[in-house]
Amino acid sequence: MITKIAIAGWPKSNKTLLALTLSNMTGIPFIQNRTMYEWRKIHDLTDSPNPEWKDMYLIASSSFFERAVMESYYEQFISDGASFSELMWMKICWEKQCPEKMQFGRDKTTENLEQVCALHAAQQYDFIIHANSGASPCINDLYMQMYAKYHLPFKVYSTESMEETVNEIKNDLHLPVKHSVESAIYQAKVDLFLKP
Asked: Which of 139, 151, 187, 188 has the greatest number of C-beta atoms within 10 Å?
């Protein structure tokens, strides 16, 4: 039975709404890491519009360890994000900044963190839902390459119509249903609206 689900994808892909909706519908606990903004604030990086590689690495590794510890407390969960979410952000941002300047040491360090994150994902997640909101194809391609490289169980779902997506996921994964899809979406929107 699939009870440990990670919702992956680029920021602004409706991951949180989807995760909350699935949690409300199934009764499986919703868990969430600190946001990228919160990590930048913790590490005093809010004034830097383009963080350096070492700062990105600090955020990615901090977030991974927090998520791994949090997930270890649950026998089942729907996670808003995945153990490699911040790593993907780091890789994509760094490659966009200056791909020609990446050095061997940085590549090796990033590769090591990727292996740790991917191993955790392979051992921890029953399934990864990749939320596709029409982000740049090259960004989604990087995710697809990671899923294939580490044989992670996943499927891409469009998040343009939340009701259709949730119904498709429910049928694909044979999820338990405690509340209707419509009421789960409504409650998720209320939860997001009331979130501080």
From this structure: 188
What are the structure tokens assigned to 89, written together?
Answer: 């952000």
Q: How many domains does the chain have?
A: 1
Chain CA centroid to CA 159, Å = 14
Task: Return the CATH number at 152.
Answer: 3.40.50.300
**In angstroms, rounded to a whole number, what is the distance separating the alpha carbons of residues 20 and 26?**
10
Query: What token pair was written down for 148?
Result: 């294939």
Q: Is the full-model pTM beyond 0.85?
A: yes
Quote the CA–CA distance of 35 and 123 in Å, as a whole number.
Answer: 24
Cα(62)–Cα(56) distance, integer angstroms: 10
Q: How buried is residue 174: exposed, middle or buried, by Cβ count under 10 Å (0-12/13-18/19+)? A: exposed
Question: Are residues 99 and 138 in contact, defined by beta-carbon separation less than 8 angstroms?
Answer: no
The 10s digit of each residue's pLDDT in 32-60 is: 988 777 887 887 876 666 677 778 888 88
Host H or E run for residue 26: helix 15-26
